[in-house]
Automatic annotation (TrEMBL):
Taxonomic path: Eukaryota, Viridiplantae, Streptophyta, Embryophyta, Tracheophyta
Family: Belongs to the auxin efflux carrier (TC 2.A.69.2) family.
Function (record text): Involved in cellular auxin homeostasis by regulating auxin metabolism. Regulates intracellular auxin accumulation at the endoplasmic reticulum and thus auxin availability for nuclear auxin signaling.
Membrane spanning residue stretches: 6-34, 46-64, 70-94, 106-127, 147-168, 234-256, 276-297, 309-337, 343-367, 379-400
GO terms classed as biological process: auxin-activated signaling pathway
GO cellular component, one term: endoplasmic reticulum membrane
Membrane topology: Multi-pass membrane protein
Domain of life according to the entry: Eukaryota
InterPro entries reported for this sequence: Mem_transp_PIN-like, PILS1/3/4/5/7
Pfam families: Mem_trans (PF03547)
Keywords: Auxin signaling pathway, Endoplasmic reticulum, Membrane, Transmembrane, Transmembrane helix, Transport
Protein name, UniProt field: Protein PIN-LIKES 3
Keyword Transport set for record: yes
């Protein structure tokens, strides 16, 4: 296929994202004030608890089977690699630039976590529906693409709320301890403040005392006590986000044939439940994209964030990660550990070229650290994404077709 046609195919979904984002920003302007801060919070809550879980569950239930799940085993590993490599590059960048401590968690989070949620769910169907049809029949491409994108969203959510959440928590706890000494506190939410205190004041345990204690404690209690401590330290409410629970539920329905026959298909007795979930899920993508545009207006506020940090994030996310991603995916294809499917290869490559995850702004709001700076990062990265995503998508399609 000609490179120019591939460029147009890659450009169309990015333009759709930009148009819907611009609508969100327009509605949030003070002149119109339709998407006020309170309205954004309420809409964000509905998206978080209802729209996105419904979308993920309905798509996975319809498109994922045990056989297809086995075939895409490489995707969780690939997403994990994007997080690890991004965090490692961010850490090296911080060491070279000696950035201030209050920015380190934000920089690492933005370098590690890409927007594996709404962007692939917009880009993939738009690419499939293009007249050029680079990935074959539009309906088959759309069904497979949405399944891949939904699985990507589900896995990404798990990694974000475990890996990235704890990175920002660790660096926020360091700031908290410093500010606590100076007489101030960090974090608008008391629960988060308690979490910071619990994780920043670990009691020292003497090895000899521990061994003496263990001699008087039954072996069952010795095994269960560390497990209970681990469960207490893990914030299960954060880890088991609604979209994660919906992903697990959707996978169970798709993989277990009796559940799929009961809920999915024209002859399913409980198909009205799946149809209702699908209708709710259809509102997820436009609602999220409108919210992105409204929230990006916060990036116009002034901040003391250094330009070098912003440039570093852009270079890592839009140059270093995609180049390394091409090397990893081409190597995996050459070895033969990835099944032959150009659409699947394209999504694996796309996971390395996405802008930072919107969830990072939610995490920074939870800890009350770097909120304004996060808005600036989101504004700059998403503006640059309109160019970088188009160029990388064009190159990725040329590479896999």
């Amino acid at each position: 296929m000609q490179l120019w046609k591939l460029f147009i195919t890659a450009l169309m979904p990015v333009l759709k994202v930009l148009i819907i984002t611009a609508v969100g920003a327009f509605l949030a302007l003070h002149r119109f004030n339709i998407l006020r801060e309170s309205a954004r919070k309420h809409l964000n809550t509905i998206v978080y608890y209802v729209f996105t879980p419904a979308l993920v569950c309905s798509i996975l239930a319809k498109a994922i089977t045990f056989r297809s799940l086995v075939m895409v085993w490489f995707m969780p590993l690939n997403i994990l690699l994007t997080f690890i490599i991004g965090a490692a590059l961010g850490w090296l960048f911080l060491k070279m630039t000696k950035s201030p401590p209050d920015m380190q968690g934000l920089v690492l989070g933005c370098c590690a976590a890409g927007n594996l949620g709404n962007l692939p769910l917009i880009i993939i169907p738009a690419v499939c529906k293009e007249s050029n049809r680079p990935f074959g029949d539009a309906d088959i491409c759309n069904k497979k693409g949405l399944a891949y994108a939904s699985l990507s969203m589900a896995i990404g959510n798990i990694y974000i709320w475990t890996f990235v959440y704890n990175i920002i928590r660790v660096y926020s706890s360091q700031i908290y301890k410093v500010n606590k000494i100076e007489g101030s506190t960090v974090g608008p939410v008391s629960a988060i403040e308690t979490d910071l205190e619990n994780h920043s004041t670990e009691p020292a345990v003497n090895a000899q005392d521990l061994s003496e204690t263990n001699n008087h404690v039954p072996k069952q209690n010795q095994i269960m006590k560390p497990l209970k401590t681990l469960v207490k330290k893990l914030n299960l409410k954060v880890l088991l986000a609604p979209s994660t629970i919906a992903s697990i539920l959707g996978l169970i329905i798709g993989v277990v044939p009796p559940f799929q026959k009961m809920l999915v298909g024209d002859n399913a007795p409980l198909r009205v439940v799946e149809d209702s979930a699908s209708m709710l899920g259809d509102a997820s993508i436009p609602a999220i994209t409108v919210l992105v545009g409204a929230n990006l207006l916060n990036g116009l506020k002034r901040s003391g964030m250094k330009l070098s940090l912003l440039v570093g994030i852009l270079v890592i996310r839009y140059i270093a990660l995609p180049i390394l991603g091409v090397a990893i995916i081409k190597g995996a294809i050459h070895i033969g550990i990835i099944h032959h499917d150009p659409l699947y290869h394209f999504i694996l490559l796309l996971q390395y070229a996405l802008p930072p995850a919107i969830s990072i702004s939610t995490i920074t709001q939870l800890f009350g650290a770097g909120e304004t700076e996060c808005s600036i990062v989101m504004l700059a990265t998403y503006l640059c994404a309109s160019f970088s995503l188009t160029l990388w998508s064009t190159f990725f399609m040329w590479l896999v077709l």
